[in-house]
Amino acid sequence: SLCQFIACLTSIGTIHERFWTIKNGMQARAGCWGVDCYSHVRSYFEARAHRLQAFGRPAAVTPARRSHPRPAHCSPCLTRRRLLQGSPAMGAAIIAATTAGHTAGDALAANVDRPKQDGAGEPDKPCDLRKQKAYWLSRSLIAWPAAAQKPEGTRFHLVCSTNATLEIQGGMLKGDNGRIPLDQYTKAFPADLRKKFPHLANLPLLQLPQNQAMQNDLDQVLRGQCVVTAGQDDRPSAATGLQLSGVIDDLFATDAWLGVKIGVSGTSVQLWAPTAQEVKLLVYSSPEGWDQQERTMRRGARGVWRADGPPSWRGQYYTYRITVFHSSTGKIEVSEVTDPYSVALAADGKRTQFADLQDPSTQPPGWSQHESPPLESLNDSCLYELHIRDFSATDDSVPAELRGKYRAFTLADTRGGRALGQLQAAGITHVHLLPAYDFATVPECPRDQKWVQTDLSQMPPDSPQQQQAVAEVAKVDAFNWGYDPVHYLAPEGSYAEEVDGTGRSREFREMVAGLHERGLRVVLDVVYNHTFNAGPSSQYSVLDKIVPGYYHRLEADGSLCGSAFGANNAPEHAMMERLVIDDLVHWATQYKVDGFRFDIMSCLMVSTMEKARDRLRALTLANGGVDGSKLILYGEGWEFGEMANNQRGRNAAQLNLAGTGIGSFNDRLRDAILGGSPFAPSREQGLINGLALQSNSHMSQQMAPEEQAELLGHLTDMALVSLAANLRSYRITDHEGRSVLGKEVLYAGVQPAGYAASPVETINYCSCHDGEILFDQLIMKPEDSVSTEERARMATLAQWMVALSQGIPFFHAGDELLRSKSLDRDSYNSGDHFNRLDWSGATNNFGVGLPVAEKNEDMWPVKGPFLARTELRPGPDMIARTRDAFLAALRVRSSSPLFRLRTAEAVQQQLKLSTPMPGVIVMELKSADSSNVDGSVRDEQYSRILVALNARPQDATLQLPSGADMQLHPDLPRWMAESTQPASNPDDPTTAVVPARSAIVLVQRC
Prior knowledge:
The chain is of the alpha+beta class. The protein has 28 helices and 42 strands. The strands form 11 sheets. An 8-stranded parallel β-barrel has the order 20-21-24-27-28-29-34-35. The chain has a 7-stranded mixed β-barrel with strand order 2-3-8-7-4-9-10. β36 and β37 (920-926) form a beta hairpin.
């Protein structure tokens, strides 16, 4: 069976091709259609199908088959164990594939029949002008696979039509107004193009004429329909359209200013639209009125269009009416579109405002002198992930008009405000905000929003009624995570009280200032991997209306890549890369944010991330108003889609980021702590919740005790590497007694567990907004008889492991309050009801109904019985104790620089890790005699710190270092200290007892 491995592959292949190929073929061959094998993956893709349908991508998925029972030999856990250990056959196939530049999905799918999808099965036509199978790489060269298949004497042409009337009738190509002969290029593929287009480097090339007159004509040629043909005169044997990103970069990439400039003498706008035939500026006096002024814009150098107007345009609104050939329709399209460099918008992004963010009216008092809280080193960062609406939407201590809004963060004396104050005092340094740019999926005006009208509080804890009520208004309520970008440079309007114009900018700045004044820096979640929509028609398509087919990544036939759950962007193209970097600098300088979290960061190139890093680091208080050296950059480094394994160049994936100083989320620690993965069966156990020590029924059925013990040993090895900042060079003693480097411990059987070169490159976490959050996982994974108290202790232990690891710790808001989303695995559109965050600690939101069917219905039979167990709902005292323990972990981390070592060398020298028994990890940190240039650190307070993490269901006795005078850390919460046998036990002063499912910290003072 390969059911578990399917889960690993969902982050690798092209989603709607490789995933279903592998699932249908391999799972069918195993004879397994058990719902828990793949329903968790199926729901993940179905939940995002509407995004793909919105711009014409295939969104159908194979219907679930539930009639076949799981055969006895089907064991997801067994498969995972084989992968973790490195199955020779599987590992060899995958390593061979990835070495050749393919994905692991390719390796598995090579001998599997691909299922037919809607529209599939149509034979490939050699002459198909609807597709773009050729690549215009530069002003001189075109790559076309078909060029290699033509007999000697075949003539090639670039055929153009200004009015897009090309068609093939009776075998004849008609409707053109120009043909350019092409020669076959006989030299080696140029090195610069090989670097830019590595996935095309084996294709044959055709060369355009090199005379200057022809080169001058390309500007006009690119404004119409272009196809390449092979054959005899008007009767082509092959013909296709062209993908134009390469030649557009070559001819038109520019550093000219874009957007709006407002001065004393007038107002100007500039738009980059090199393939447009005409652009008109439409000026409106208000965000909704129709008193329109129209101006024809002038085309300048490198495809930049410009219009100038009076100073009175300030505060008014505009759009562009653009006439351009759109390859997705094969027509000249006329579209009205906003400015991609919009900094202020009308409600719902319908118009761009002529705005100047230097205007004092857009700034709170004192903004020009405002500075971020101090931060000595990026290694001191401690991150807290929070959704803007979650912070205050259900907090009745916040005035009603500010709930769910930016300005709720300006209030210190609310439940949420006081909670943030406690977190900051304990050690949280950054609040990571989920997307706050303009996104598509929430109506911005309150008058357009709808709400659940039914009282849900009296319904049974496992009822489907709550989710049905939430789903009925999900598309028109005020809640969404916001991973649906439309305008990158403008704040989202639904979080603003003043939706139209620059009011949202002022309120966003007030939020940032409010957090800064509380001592908290601000991280923005940015989504450059896709936009919500593309094409010539949708209101939410901006980039693709202006330069069709350029800003987005395309498949081999010219259709949009959709693996990132939208219209995949192409930051490897010069002007998309420029937009990314311009946007980052804009938010850093105009809004004084302190870092960025990159969604599916691996969809960007390492080179793009390094350019962005360098531009941001160059900012200073004198030049930009911020200290760029203290801006933190991190993101999701999963291998993903068409970018996986460097298929289109060196992408910003985990294994490529060593040495960049850019962080990536450490899924190795997450999976070691909790077991499984976000796509694995929900009851698969890990280090802290009973694997091999108190197995649940699922694990007992799937794995023999000795197999569980082996898996526990491997997960412990991954945890050791992770506690050492996931450094590839850190040396541990593994569970078999071998001395191995972090990079030699395998993750999923095919990747090194350790991949970082510096602690700042590792973002350690066990829970985030994606997937079931921490408490919900600890409902499903432990053995059924485990008490709520013990589950709360597991949650505390998980958070302590993250907090005290080397690297950057990251926490999801509310995990310290045992927050629940009623087992919702993807609450991106599940409303305030399932996303409720109760800062008072009176409740934790567990058992408020079955989670929303869209993502969870297949798992209702598993989740429903848990939700019905009301005894699993923690009370206020238990929530308070868990919160206090979390705050204590933060204080312990803050108490010593030894928990924040800055170099790989210091971690190797000053951190010792051991596993005295299964389920127990001991960390020993030693202070250096002095702080040295190699990064070693001296702690002026403690010469030695000992951390013991006990995941066992029984107490564990710890042997103390010989001759050490160890005492309990003074920041341990009272209940943890009282349950711990003192280190100075007169019966045996060389030992300390670590309570079951708990942690202790012992210190030796200088």
